[in-house]
Design goal:
The chain has about 375 residues and is of the alpha+beta class. The protein folds into 2 domains: about 120 residues, Phosphorylase Kinase, domain 1 (2-Layer Sandwich), CATH 3.30.200; about 230 residues, Aminoglycoside 3'-phosphotransferase, Chain: A, domain 2. It is built from 15 helices and 9 strands. A 5-stranded antiparallel sheet has the order 1-2-3-5-4. Helix 9 runs antiparallel to helix 10.
């Protein structure tokens, strides 16, 4: 069944008719009688990176639909520019095909659709603020306990498909770090843009110069990392686990947002990124080894019997920092998150790159 209307790119298009059409397409029963837009954020608003968000409340026909929330969020394309389309298609696939079978903390989705013609998308999701969710940034202190809870969430995700034949068979459609539209966008299409950021943003020029790698060398090293890690343990990875893609709940649970880069990959991709962005430089230096051990213990607690050793994991944790520097934040313009958050992430990641001798470890596999 085709969508009766095109997906909007701002709050003005989020109407009763549109929402009911999306619900009908997704095979959902409730019918909405009225909608009130509470907040609409599009590209250019701080904290909006690759997709726009509309928060709204609804009134259902015949009272509140059983099990359906009154407050919802719609995630939609950030602009008419279709550059981010591979991300959109990937995230819709996660929420419609994988999320229902995952027993972990991640937002609930009530319907989703990707339009191949317009390359726009929509994901109807719970408004996490109704559960008291807090959305952390690098400008605040994250406790070791909170970071452990996030690592527990990652271990649950990774253990679910750890080296599973399912990844090579039924889920073979999932992309990986070198194959698929998302990989092409990140590894190749983004390279000129990243170089432009290095050349024109003074703080990026200085930080990249500090580690002694050029933009083209970082690109080649990142691809070498992917080729190397594809021969190691594989699982379903979130793909973009910087602190800004997480949330904390009052009961202590910690969840993961923004699944646009999910796919088949090596677990240290996720683990290195969350530890390096969540902690101050000083705290990371003190705690990262113990946190890696904690993650490995959580894998075992979730049934993984063939997890790599600490030493092997530490080497891949350290190597993975090249992606965190090159793709993770050099791609991100200041307008997305604001000056302080952007600079803080770059500073933490570049320092980790130096501390962990990432350059030396990556050159060993190039």
């Amino acid at each position: 069944m085709t969508m009766p209307i095109r997906h909007p790119i701002d709050g003005e298009g989020v109407t009763v008719d549109y929402l009911n059409g999306l619900l009908q397409h997704s095979g959902q029963a409730p019918s909405i009688a009225d909608v009130t837009i509470e907040e609409s954020r599009t590209y250019g608003d701080q904290m909006v990176s690759t997709a726009a968000r509309v928060l709204f409340s609804v009134r259902y026909h015949d009272g509140m639909a059983q099990g359906w929330p009154r407050h919802l969020m719609l995630k939609i394309a950030r602009t008419d520019d279709d550059v981010m389309a591979p991300f959109y298609a990937n995230e819709v696939a996660f929420y419609t095909q994988l999320r229902p079978s995952l027993d972990m903390e991640a937002p609930r989705s009530f319907g989703g659709h990707y339009d191949n013609e317009t390359r726009h998308f929509a994901l109807l999701m719970e408004n996490l603020t109704t559960r008291g969710a807090h959305f952390p940034t690098v400008l605040e202190t994250v406790s070791i306990d909170r970071l452990q809870r996030l690592l527990e969430t990652l271990a649950l995700l990774h253990a679910r498909y750890w080296n599973a034949s399912l990844l090579r068979q039924e889920l073979a459609w999932l992309g990986n770090a070198l194959e698929g539209d998302v990989a092409h966008l990140l590894n190749d299409a983004a390279a000129p843009y990243i170089q432009h950021e290095i050349d024109t943003q003074s703080f990026k020029t200085e930080l990249v110069g500090k580690i002694g790698w050029t933009g083209s060398e970082l690109q080649a090293g990142t691809k070498a990392l992917h080729r190397h890690q594809m021969s190691l343990d594989q699982c379903l990875v979130h793909g973009d686990t910087h602190l800004g893609n997480t949330y904390f709940l009052p009961d202590g649970q910690c969840g993961l947002l923004d699944w646009q880069l999910m796919g088949r990959g090596h677990p240290m991709h996720d683990v290195s990124y969350i530890i390096a962005t969540a902690l101050s430089i000083a705290d990371r230096r003190v705690h990262e080894r113990d946190l890696l051990r904690y993650y490995l213990d959580q894998l075992a607690a979730n049934g993984v019997r063939n997890a790599p050793s600490f030493d092997a994991s530490w080497a891949e944790y350290s190597r993975s920092m090249i992606w965190n520097v090159y793709v993770g934040w050099l791609t991100t313009p200041v307008v997305n998150y604001g000056w302080e958050i952007n600079v803080m992430n770059h500073l933490r990641l570049v320092t980790a790159f130096e501390d962990l001798e990432t350059g030396k470890l990556v050159r060993e596999i190039m």
